[in-house]
Amino acid sequence: MADLPPASNECGDCVAMGSTWVHLRQCLVCGKTGCCDNSPNRHATTHSRETGHALIQSAQPGEKWAWCYPDNAFFIPGDEGGWVLFED
Ligand SMILES: [Zn+2]
Ligand SMILES: [Zn+2]
């Protein structure tokens, strides 16, 4: 999960459609930025389904968390780098 390109500040798929989004997510496998599930087109989830890329992170400024689709698991940054499973 190292050496990802920086997240985009737009959902390229939405821009291509002339659509809009609510929040942005970045694929932690390939670095593609897509829109969240509150957005009309849910491109981040569509990308995961189409590619099998299982992990995304928030691409919103100030937000730092990751989500694993197959495990329905939420991760937060670990003290020593990487991600740790969030359990409340
Ligand atoms: Zn989108
Ligand atoms: Zn990807």
- Number of extended strands: 6
Rg, Cα atoms, Å: 13 Å
Distance between the termini: 25 Å
Going by helix content, strand content and strand pairing, the class is alpha+beta
Which sequence of SSEs, written as H and E, runs from N to C? Answer: HEEHEEEE
Strand content: 25-35%
By DSSP (H or I, 4+ residues per run), the number of helices equals 2
Query: Which term fits the overall shape?
Result: globular
With strands numbered from the N-terminus, the spatial order across the biggest sheet is 2-1-3-4-5-6
Q: How confident overall, as mean pLDDT?
A: 95
Low-pLDDT regions: none
Tell me about the biggest sheet? 6 strands, antiparallel
CATH superfamily of the domain at 12-62: Zinc/RING finger domain, C3HC4 (zinc finger)
What is the fold named in CATH at topology level of the domain at 12-62? Herpes Virus-1
Class of the domain at 12-62 in CATH?
A: Alpha Beta
> What is the CATH-assigned architecture of the domain at 12-62?
2-Layer Sandwich
Helix content: 10-25%
Distinct ligands, ions and cofactors found in the model: zinc ion
